[in-house]
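ENTRY TYPE: paired fold submission
RECORD: A
CONTENT: sequence, then structure tokens
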Amino acid sequence: MRILAVTDIHASKKGEKTIRHFIKTEEPDILTISGDITHFGPAEYASRLLNSIKIRTVAVNGNCDPPEVAAAIEESRATMIVGRTIDIDGIVFRGLGYPIFNEHLAAGGTLAGGGAAVGALDVLISHAPAYGFNDFVGGHAGDRAILDFVNRTKPKLVLSGHIHEARGIMENDDTIFINPGPVKDGFAAVVEIAQSTVNANLLSLP
């Protein structure tokens, strides 16, 4: 599966241009959006953008997406994956929005809304990063509950955003952590994921 991973659109024209450019040039099977589609709304922006994307899209909300934006994602062509587990062509995805549900993570590792058993996970899509991974901005700003969840479920791939300055690819215990960088600034990542391998590259709009 070929994934185009983006985050932090913040209702920007450059973000839209970047997404369309890399859909055309990278020919992904799926687009993932790790939150902050808008900059505190409006919901109509999220609806318009998501309904204009013709490839399969899965998304989570971010801290700059008010509740009506989360509802707009649900009602769009995209799949809202917060608190859900979905299998796409044999690759299992889970989503965490913002804020995360710490009580659900602490209670055996399940997310709000249920889903597959802990461990049955290939890709975790989260707005906030796990503590210590793509989260440094004068100090580590990631979430320890997400790190705990990752350590217990051991996904092959974690896609996050939120910390604009922490763009990068990291690896730990066979998990690849990617912050593509804010797509509003022309950044994205492309990932080839199979049952046993993950290959990723950061992208920048020329």
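RECORD: B
CONTENT: sequence, then structure tokens
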Amino acid sequence: MESLLLLYSTPLMALLIIGELIYSHYHKRSLYTKGDTFINLACTTWNFLNDLLFRGVTLLILAWIQQFAFISFASKDWVYWVLLFLAQDLAYYFLHYTDHYVRFFWASHVTHHSSEQFNFTVAIRSSVFQPFYRFIFYAPLALFGFEAFDIVFMYALCQVYGFWVHTKLVGKLHPVFEFFFVTPSHHRVHHASNPKYLDRNMGMVLIIWDRIFGTFTPEDDQEPVVYGLTKHQEENNLMKVVFAEWVQIVKDVRHAPDLKSSFMYVFGPPGWSHDGSRQTSRELKAALEKPGATQVQAHDTQ
């Protein structure tokens, strides 16, 4: 099933990218740059190779966990697939939330957020190391009786949905659709570096998880989205894009004054510092609520 999904979705994605490129050129929207697009294509290639490399391990782990499932489905009817979709989308929400709030995982995920553009190729600016740990968040689905191949297929299907929300060219949609599903408007907020928008709208297909868990923020027409990281870091060097945060973690740990600080520099929230010289996203948001307050330097990759 996954191969058929890839067969049909890849040409559609390519057409959308070409269409957006043509529109950007003739309407002088400057939605693409050569260097940024190269990085996006390189990242998706690297992610794909890592995914292939680790796919067998992921399937074996999920299949092994399924032996201990406490639910058994009599058949793969529509109820099975609807429940799998809901469970997978919720699992992705927690994966994505962790990517943003635990620096070790942010070091991988930051690649996806480092572009200062927002177009369809940014959707494939993949976190190249995520295939090596993604199974951790989908393991509970195997315990609920979902089969390994089905879990992997549903993840791929939801990823296809996530492609089309990476664009500036689609405005806000019907309120009912906006209430339940992730839209380009919602995802523009997610890619913003504005303190008001940081770490919001984590969903892949359904935005209701963000509404339930308090991470939803609508796009405000009075505050245009500024894309990228909180500190300018436009970079067209693939190795720097992928490894910059890992290098910074090593530097921070080397200069940490104690073991607790070392731990926090690895597993604390991005932007945490032992001396308060940087700010986490929550601290940046809190600073907005204090009139006249001066913000200290933000973490350079938050």
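NOTES ON RECORD B: Residues 294-302 have pLDDT under 50 and may be disordered. The CA atoms of residues 102 and 269 lie 5 Å apart.
STATUS: closed
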